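Quality-control log, excerpt.
Job 1 of 2 completed; input and output follow.
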Amino acid sequence: MKYLLQIPAAALAAILYGTLGASAAPTRLASPSGDISVTVSEGSDGFPVISVDAGSRHLVDAAAGLTIEGKEAGHKLGKATKPRRVTEEIKAPFHHTPSYTDVYNTVTLPLGDGLALELRAYDSGVAYRFRADRKADFTVVAETADFDVPDDTRLWLSHSTNPKKPLAMAFQNFYTVTPADSASSLPAFLPACVDYGDGLKMTLLESDLEAYPGMFVSADSVRGALKGVFAPYPKATDYYPWRRQLYVTETEPYIARSPKKRDFPWRILAVTTDDRQMPLSNLVYSLASSSRVADTSWIRPGKVAWEWWNDWGLRGVDFKAGINNATYRKYIDFAADNGLEYVVLDEGWYVPSEGDMLTTVPEIDLPELISYGKERNVGIVLWTVFNVLDDQLEEACRKYSDMGVKGFKVDFLDRDDQQAVEMAYRIADAAARHNLLLDYHGFYKPTGLNRTYPNIINFEAVFGMEEMKWSDPGKVDMPRYDVTFPYLRGMCGPVDYTPGAMRNASKADWKPIYYNPMSQGTRAHQGATYVVFESPFTMLCDSPSLYEKNRDWVDYIVPIPETFDSTEVIDGEMGRYIVSKRVKDGNIYIAGLTDWEGRDYLLDFSFLPEGSRWQGTLMRDGVNADKEADDYVIESVTVSPTAKLPVRMASGGGFVLTLSPEAR
C-alpha cells in the first residue's frame, strides 16, 4: 500500500526501538514498509489500548483485556521485547494462492498475572493476541475488545438474524451500511468493516480460534465504537427434534475454560486502501496454526452434483425421483458424463430425527452407490449434522472411510461458543486421520481452520443460493450481495455459496419458490461466480435435467478450475461490481459481476505478454438479458496485449472469459 506520508529510515528506527523502556511508556511498532503504525499504551481503566494509524490517518483505539475468575487481569504494561522482523514462506494448499511470503514486525509485552500481549504489524494490517503462562488452569469471565472509531466513518455489518438469541444463528445475512453514530446495536458477526472514505477501510477479523468462543461486535452509536461480544460457555443443552441438532439452553457466567498455558485467538485489524486488496488478504490464513495434516495429497478439490437445492428435481425418468438409489445413480451419471468429481447425498439418507448416521434409510443402498460412483470416477460425500457426527465420530469416520466415502458435508452448528469450536476441531482432526474431506456448512465464519486442517476445503457462513428458496422478495438483493461479500467475507476464506441456477429472473420477475427455485440476476451472472467466488468444493446446484437442456453452459463452466495459481481483482468497488482474474497452468480466467445496475465494461489486455496472441471463449449476457435473465451468449474471441474488448453486463449480470495462449 502507498500513502502520502513517507516515514524516513531514522524515524522508523525510533518507532521500532525508541520507546521500550519504562513500564508505562507507550510501545510503538511499524509495519515493514512503515505505512502502518501501532502504539500500545495504558488506558485510563488500566486496559492496554492499541492505537492504529495508516499514514497520517488515525484509524482506531482498541481497548484489549481479559477478566479472569472475577478479576480484571493483565493491566500492567511491562517492558516489551526487542522488535523482530519475521519473513516466512507459507504453503497454502487450496487457498487463493498456493504459496506466498509473509513479512511482519512483532513484539511481545508482559502484562502481569501470567499474561502477555503479542503484537504483529503487517503492511496489510495489525494483529494482537493474549498469551497465558499461569500456575493453574483458569476461567475467562469476559474479554474486552472495544474498538473506538472516528464519528465520520461508515460501518459495513452483517447482523444476527436471531434477535432473541443473537449469538445462535447460521451466520448468514446481508450487509447493512450505516454511519457509525447510527448503527444498530444488534450483534453482528465478523468480518465487520469500518469505512473511512477515499478507499480506506479497516476490517475486523479473527484467526486461530481454538478452544475459545468467536467474536461478534455490537455497535455503540453514542461512543462511535464496536464492542466485542462473546458467547458464554454452555451449561446445559437440548436437541431440536427434527434433526437431533444440539442447542444451548443454559449458560455459565463466563465465556471460556482455559489451561494454564495457551495462546488466545488473534484479533485482526486489516487495513486496505483499495477495495481490490480485500479479497486477496492473507492475514486470517497466515495467523492460523500451521497444518496438522502431514500428507494432503489425498485431498481433492472439485465440482459437485447436488440434489437438495433443486429438490431431487429430475424429469423424463422412469422412476420416482427422491431419496433412493435410482435418483442418485442419475446424479452420478450426470457427474461422470460431465467431469464432476463428487455427488453429495444431502439430508435424508439417514433419518434426521433419529440422529443416527450409521444407519441408512431403507431406500438407500450406500455400498452399491459408492461402488457405482467408483466405477464412474465419482466420489460420494455424505451430509450430516455436527453433533450427530461428533456423537459417533470415530465409528462413523472409520466406517465410511473404509466403505469408500470421500468426506462429509457437516451442517447446523449455528453457534461459536467454546464447546462448538472444540467440536469443529475435533471433527476436523478425526476426519483427517481417516482421509475424509469436510465441507463445513451452517458454520461460523472461517478463522484459518483450513490452514490447520486443509481437509476442510469449504465453509458456508455466506448468504448463499439456498436463501433463494424462501427469502422475502422485498428484502433480498442477491446481485448486490454477490458484489459485496467477495470483498468482505472473502477476506477470511472460501465460500460454499452453491451456484449454478438454470432458472434466472430479473428484479421484477423473481420470487421465492421452494421446489423449483430461481436465482436473482442473469445466467451469465451465475457463470461468473465460478471464477469470482473462491470455492475449492463448489456445487452445481440445479437439476441434471435442466443442465442437459443447457449443455453449452455446462460444457463451459465445468472445465473452470476450483483452485488457481494466482488471483487478482483487476477492477471493482464493494457493493457495486467486481472483475477478477485468475490463472491456472498458463490459462487465464476473467469474470465480472454487477449489481442491479447494468454496466458497460471495457476489458483491457495490456497485462498479456508483448507479442502474444490468445484464443478465448466469452460467456456474456444476451442483448435481452435485462428482461429475459436466462439470455446469454457464448462466443469465441482472439485477443492480444493491445486489444480492448467491450462487454455489456446487464442488470444483475456478469461475464466470464477463458483465455489460452495461441500455439506457435
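Job 2 of 2 completed; input and output follow.
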Amino acid sequence: MRFLDCDECKEIFAGREIYVFGAGVDGEKLYQKLADTVNICAFIDNKRYGKGNYLCGKEIINLEQYRQRKTGDQPIIVAAYRFMVDISEQLVKEGFVPEKDFFIWDDHCIHHANTIAKQYIKFMSDIWGEKKREQTDRIVLVPFDSRHDQNSVQYAYLSNFLAEKYDASIYGFCRYGASVENASSVVFDIYKAFNVVGLIDSSLNKEMQKESDDILRQVWENLYTWKDWKDLTVYGICFGTTVIRDFLREDLPDYDMRSQRIYNFIKKTIDSIVFWYHYIMEHDIVTVLLADGVCWEGYIRDIAITKEIPTYAVEYTMERAYLDFHGRTDACLYYKEMWQQLTSEEQRYGIQWAKERIHNRIKGNSVDVDKTSEKIYSFSQKFKEDRILDNDDKIKIIICPHIFEEDSVGHGEQIFDNSYMEWLCHLGELSEKTPDYHWYLKMHPCSRRRDVMIIENYVKRYPKIKILPLDISPIQLKEEGADFALTVHGTIGHEYPAIGIQVINAGNNPHIAFDFTWNPKTKEEYDHLIMNLSDLEPKDNMEELYQFYSMHYLFYDREYIPYTTMFYDNPLLPLCMGELEVYGKELGTWKYEEYMKEWTVDRHMKLWDEIEDLFQKMDCWKPNIFYRKNIEIDYMIGEEG
C-alpha cells in the first residue's frame, strides 16, 4: 500500500475532484492543507453522515451515496489514522482498487517510519532493554493509540515499574475499540522498545459474539430515553454514564433514540463490554493504566475496579481511577471549607488578588484561561457594530453549551441524566413554552467541526433559539440586556456574574460550594427557576466569587502531581492535539526528537526512583484535603504592598 504526504497529494490531485473518507480531526486537517489546490467534493464517513451534516462546508455522506454521486475519475483519499486499515479493507471488500480508486494519506508517518521514528525506537530500546524480563501470566495493561505522541514516556516508566514490582508482562490495548489489525506497526515498534510484549486482540469469538448478541437484544428492548441509557447495566455493573460519555464524545447525537445509528453504537458498545469483561475476569491483571480514564476507557475501568484491580489515569493527569471516574474535580465541593483554613492575611491577599485578576479577565486578559482557549478568548471589549440581541424588554437568556469532544461528566453528577443533549433538548422544549423570553445560544469559543454540526441541527429543531456570533463579547450581551446564562458546569459561572449576568448551572460544578450562581438540585427545581426568572432576586455576592477565584487559581494545587514537569522540560511535549494547535503545532515525530534532546541519564535515574512515590500519592489523594500551592504569605504581602 502506498502512503502519501501532503506534497504528494497536491502533486497527484491538483485541480482534480476527490472525496475524503474520514469526517473527523484527520479529515479536517487534510481539507485545510489541500483545499487551495484540490476540489474536495464531500466527506465520506461511516458514522457522521446524515442530512444536514457538514464538515468544512462540505456534506458528509456514506459510501453508498459516494457510489451514486461519483462521475468518472473522482478517487477517495482515506484520512483517518486510527481506522486507516479498517477503512482500506472496507473499500477493498466493496470492490475499490488501491492506488486507483483510493489512496491513503499518512502525512504523520503513522504507517511508515521516518528517520526520527527509527532513531526513537532505538533510543527507547537502549533505555529500557535492561528492564526486559521473561513473559509471565501476570499482566500490566497500557493504552495504545496509533499516533505519534509523547505518552510512550509516561507509559514506559509506569509500566516497567509495575512489571518489575509484580513480575508481570506489559500488554497494550487499542483505545476507542480500534481493531488490533488497524494498529500502526511503527508506533507498536516504539511500544515494543519499552517492553510491551503484545497488543490485545479484542475481536469476539463465536461464544462471546452470541453472548453479546443476547445481551444486546435484552438491552435494546429497554432503551428509549437518556434515563434508560443511564441505567444500562451488564454483568451487574452499571455502565450507563460511561455509555453516554462515550457516545457524546465520538458520535453525532440523534433525536431518534431508536435509529439505526444509535443501534449500531449500542451494538459496538456491548461487544466491547463483553470482550473486556471476559478478558479481565479470566486473566491475572495486576494493574490497569489508562489514558484519560473516561468515555470508552470507562468500560475497562469499571470492570477492572469491580475486580479490585488498581486502575490509574496517566495521560493528561496522574490519578487513581474509581467507578464513574471524573478526575479531581470533587475538590471543588470543599473549597468553602478550605477557604476557612487560610489565615486572615491569606484571605485578605486572596480577595485582593482575585479582584485584580477578575477585573483583568473581563477586560480580555487570558492569564487564567486554559491555553486551548487563549487565542479565541471572547471576553473582550470589542463590540459588534450592529445590535445583536432583540431590542425590547423581554427577558434574554443565553445558553452556553459545552464542547462535545470533551468528557460530558467532567464534574460528576448532572440533573439531566448526565447528558448535555438531554439538557439542551429540555431547554429547547422550554423555549417553546416561554413567549415572554428571548432565547439565544453562544457556542463555546473552542467549538470544533462536530459541535457546529450538532448545534446547527439543534437550532433547526428548536427555532425559538438563535445562534449568536462566536466572537461576541459577553460585555456587549450584558449591555444589550442579557439577564441570564445557562450552563451545566462551565467557567461562565465565575465570569458572567462578574459583569452582572446571573448564571444557572445544571449539575455539579466548580462553583457549587459558593453562593454566586444558581444551583438547582432537581429538574423540577431547575424548571421552577427558568419559568420564574422575573421573580428571582439577583445574586450579588462578589465576596464569595473572589473567594472561589483565589481558591481555584491561587491557593489550591490542582496539579497535585506535576507530571508534566516531572517527565518533560519542553512544555509542548505533554500537550494533546487541541492544545498544540494553539501553538501552530501538530502531533508528530518532532516530539520524539525534542525529547531525545532533553533526556539525560541523571534525570532518568532520578525519575525512576520517584515512581513508587508517585503511585503512593495517587493512591492517597482525597478530595477534602487542602493541597496548597507553595506560596509564602510574606512573599505575597511584598507583592501586595
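Post-run check on job 2. The longest strand covers residues 138-144.
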